[in-house]
Specification:
homodimer, mainly alpha, Transcription Regulator spoIIAA, 25 helices, 8 strands, about 5% strand, disordered C terminus
């Protein structure tokens, strides 16, 4: 097909526009405008986040069913990629609990945890979700995330957190247990309860206790000692490091490994090798649905944290740029031995509170984790898995928000239904089924609600030109005219309801000659509603009644003129409801006159 | 759990209410109030419908992949069941083209056409769809059918009709061809084209020609002869019978069977034996999705015909009773050797035009078909399948409405997209995929549209208490106040859009101190939108801006009071936008005064 000159000009304009946008984006990039006075603050934030991130990244790798180093690897390149391409100044990217759980649920359908195939599939999952996020960025599809309603997300996170906490019990008890829902997990744990290892249980519960105390009690304790705020903060954040160090030393010196305590074991020292993910098409196809869900959940989690933090500095988050940042972070994870990552809530808040000013904090964190991978890994050999499990449990318990159930119940039964269904499906079936159930149910419930719009018969407020609901106000009505106001746009799911309602009103008032549809609140009439209005016109005509419209909005009227509706309308279109009233009052008075007088008058 | 007395009373009341409703329904039943003067009209209608139904029922059985007698059986008991339980006085139930196609598509996934298993599975499909319809009646789920938008239904019927017409080409050509979409069918027909049987082709095209002519030309021709209206009507309707008789005699006397013309062959004489359908759970499970789609499509087709006809007599259709009627018709079909049935469009119009007054016409039609099954079946032995195929093609070609595509394109791009996607998916993939694609797409497009609601910044029309869009009218505004009117209910899919839009407006006007959200057009705020408003309040507060509401509707306000939103609102809730204007104008004037004057004034 030859390209004509106007198309060529259009293409040139588009190209030019994109060039301009890209050059503007580059010249505005934080890295090229970095001010050295922000350096110390960014470095301080990076140190605090690193202290928090090292045990978390090891733990989340464990949760995802991967070797511990995968957690470190997922916290190096992805952080750099996000810092370069993302739009938030404070978001701390890396492995997070919910996405790690989703990774485990998806990949263990395909491979056995602990095998090379399993890790390979996790890389494919990260690559697929990276590409999906980039595609969403290019096609500007960030709005899709809006279809995850708040109650569904909140229910999903609460249920996932419960599932994660229960899944970690096996490490606290030192037993074997598999499963991706409460039923399977519970059965397995119960059956293997007798194989509990006492040393593991002691280490685990002690870690759990100390971690909870540093979260809740330590801060109050230090404040009574009047310790400086920064020190208090640092000590509270260092709680997990303290536990990691103490329990590792305990295993080492009490030789608990030989007594059956599961430890992290050998972690290869050094940086990850860069590799391309497996390009087996079948594998990609199998992981695609999970990758879509992980992308969406990850994006929603990130963007809400990022927006909250940006607002505190009167800054803006660009959802499409956020997609770009998260997409490249996941691709970076896929080529450097990681697994799917996203922006973590608590981690980002810590980064913000610690005073991070620019994304350089993220790059410095990545460098610090890289150093840890090179230097510290031998020290993790004796780290008990029970400690990591305790770290996870403490982190996810903070995500459980059962009070939201009650709040939602009080506010809206429909939202509560969607939320409860999401929670129950996640717990009893699994994470993927849970998200899908929640989304579909919330959409259906929304449609159900708009499918019965508020409809009021209105009459004239005496002495004015205003019309009000006849059931609530003292208003004038005409015997042969029904004035109906609909408070919703008309579309396929509510149009039959309206058609039946008006038709019923007419059948109940056999003296009716005219029906006026007051369209002041109708922003849109879709093709189904248009046909339904045509059908209503015909049905009313068969019953000897004319249909009129009043107060049709400009855009709606423009659309109606594109159709044959106005040609077939038996009545008129009135600019205002008061004009309709006057005209139909005159008509009904004329109709009541005897024929001969009528003919002279008309 | 013991039942307390209030529950017992409630149960007793419910039971009593149901008893009353049932006894009222029985005493109002048409059969107990039958007036003998309606008898002749009902009988006449029954005769005309029977003449039309006999070739159609044989043909649709063929289309469904079943032996011809299944079509007769599906036109006996089901008609009686519908007459007793349905709500339409004119609907003629039986095998119809689209549902027969869907039956073939579903059952041939499970069994080979022509086998006993195939017929058995069709019975299960009828039973399952009967039970689904009854369940929908009991749970009052008739509204679910509203989620099939008109463009999707219209596109589905057009595409199915094309598919059916193409699928019958094999019978016109006397060749073999399989497939449930255009690609498979087309390939098969093209590959077997050389095996075309000339005699079959001649019979088929001749039948087709005569049938089209009786539809279009005959009526005009008879009217020029000034034949009486009733005779004209009868002759036009008898066209198919004429073709059936002529081609059967041609096969018989020219011995075309030995020349390769496919004929109907032996049909067992007599009424169907009553049997219970196969109760194999696996089979039911496999057919369930198809049964759901068949129930919905059948219900939608029936109810729209029934409503159109009822309106012509100023009568009402009760959707739930309609479900009951169609459900029992399908169960009756399932126990008497039939296949899924529903209300047919052309057949019902014929019934109505022929003067049917009550459902007795349906019972008489059933009796006439039963007589045909007992007496006439030997006469169908030499009936060529090509004639039946021609009957089907003529019937479905009338369903193809490509002009709807153009109409819909002109009126609404979103509706056109859903329609075109439905047509293409039906043609290229199959009927089930087509319905599902259409429904999901139309819901997504609707959500997409409401996800960007119309939002206007408004100002005061000078000298009035009215507020209008600042972009369209000359209005007063206050420098430190933004008044925003949203023309849509707030829910999960549009709430983030609104949050961002308002926040952006505030960032663009840094002198802003107050934002007023004018809620006059907001009928509902769901839990997601509530959280979003809370978040917006916080974000604006962090930016030094107060959020106010005005003109909140009663029900919305009641809901807000159930939540903590009003406690955390930084601004006020004003009854009218004019009150908000006055209060904020005063506030901005006070703010502008020097501090010492302000303190004396305040």
């Amino acid at each position: 097909m030859p390209i004509d000159s106007s198309t060529r000009q259009w293409l040139a304009r588009q190209l030019n526009r994109n060039k301009l946008m890209i050059s503007k984006a580059i010249s505005n990039h934080w890295l090229l405008n970095y001010q050295s006075k922000d350096g110390p603050a960014d470095l301080m934030a990076a140190v605090i986040v690193t202290i928090m991130l090292i045990p978390q990244s090891l733990a989340y790798a464990l949760l995802a069913g991967l070797p511990p180093q995968a957690g470190l690897y997922a916290s190096i390149l992805p952080l750099g990629a996000y810092a370069l391409f993302g739009s938030s100044r404070f978001l701390a990217v890396g492995p997070v609990a919910v996405v790690s759980l989703m990774t485990a649920a998806a990949v263990s359908q395909i491979a056995i945890p602990g095998t090379a195939e399993y890790w390979g599939a996790s890389l494919v999952l990260a690559a697929a979700s990276g590409l999906i996020l980039l595609l969403m960025a290019i096609l500007r599809l960030g709005w899709i995330a809006n279809y995850l309603s708040h109650p569904v997300i909140s229910g999903f996170i609460t249920a996932s957190a419960i599932l994660i906490a229960v899944s970690q019990l096996k490490h606290l008890l030192g037993i074997q247990a598999q499963g991706h829902n409460l039923i399977d997990l519970g059965t397995d744990i119960f059956q293997n309860l007798e194989t509990t290892n006492t040393y593991t249980l002691l280490l685990g519960t002690a870690s759990l206790g100390v971690l909870f105390w540093t979260r809740k009690g330590l801060k109050t304790f230090l404040m009574t000692l009047q310790s400086p705020a920064l020190l208090t903060d640092l000590l509270t954040k260092a709680g997990p490091v303290l536990v990691v160090v103490t329990t590792t030393l305990a295993v080492l010196f009490a030789d608990l490994e030989t007594k059956g305590v599961q430890i992290v074991g050998h972690i290869p020292q050094g940086l990850p090798a860069l590799t391309l993910p497996n390009l087996n098409l079948q594998l990609w196809k199998e992981l695609l649905p999970a990758a879509i869900l992980i992308s969406l959940i990850g994006f929603v989690e990130s963007i809400s944290v990022a927006q909250t933090l940006a607002a505190k500095r009167r800054q803006r988050i660009t959802p499409d740029k956020e997609l770009l940042g998260l997409g490249s972070a996941n691709l970076a994870s896929a080529i450097s031995g990681g697994f799917p990552v996203t922006g973590g809530f608590s981690r980002s808040v810590v980064n913000f509170d610690a005073g991070a000013r620019t994304p350089l904090a993220g790059i410095l964190t990545a460098a610090a984790i890289a150093l840890a991978a090179i230097l510290l890994t031998p020290w993790f050999y004796h780290l008990p898995k029970a400690t990591l499990a305790a770290t996870i449990i403490v982190a996810v318990v903070a995500l459980i928000d059962l009070s939201a159930l009650k709040r939602t119940w009080n506010y809206s039964r429909a939202d509560f239904t969607a939320m409860a269904a999401t929670i129950l499906t996640v717990l009893l079936v699994g994470v993927e089924a849970g998200v899908i159930t929640g989304v579909l149910l919330s959409i259906l419930l929304f449609l159900r609600q708009t499918s019965k719009p508020h409809v009021a018969e209105v009459g004239l407020v005496p002495g004015t030109e205003h019309f009000r609901n006849v059931d609530r106000h003292r208003v004038e009505t005409l015997e042969t005219v029904i004035n109906v106001r609909v408070d919703e746009s008309l579309y396929f799911a509510n149009t039959r309801f309206l058609e039946d309602l008006i038709y019923d009103k007419v059948l109940q008032q056999p003296q009716t000659k005219d029906v006026v549809l007051v369209c002041a609140a109708i922003n849109h009439i879709d093709a189904s509603a248009l046909e339904s209005l045509e059908e209503l016109t015909r049905r009313l005509f068969d019953a000897g009644v004319q249909l009129h419209l009043s107060e049709v909005k400009g855009p709606v009227m423009d659309r109606l003129k594109q159709s044959a509706f106005l040609d077939n309308l038996t009545g008129k279109v009135f600019l205002s409801q008061f004009q309709a009233w006057q005209a139909l009052k005159l008509k009904s008075e004329n109709d009541r006159l005897p024929d001969n007088i009528n003919s002279t008058a008309g």
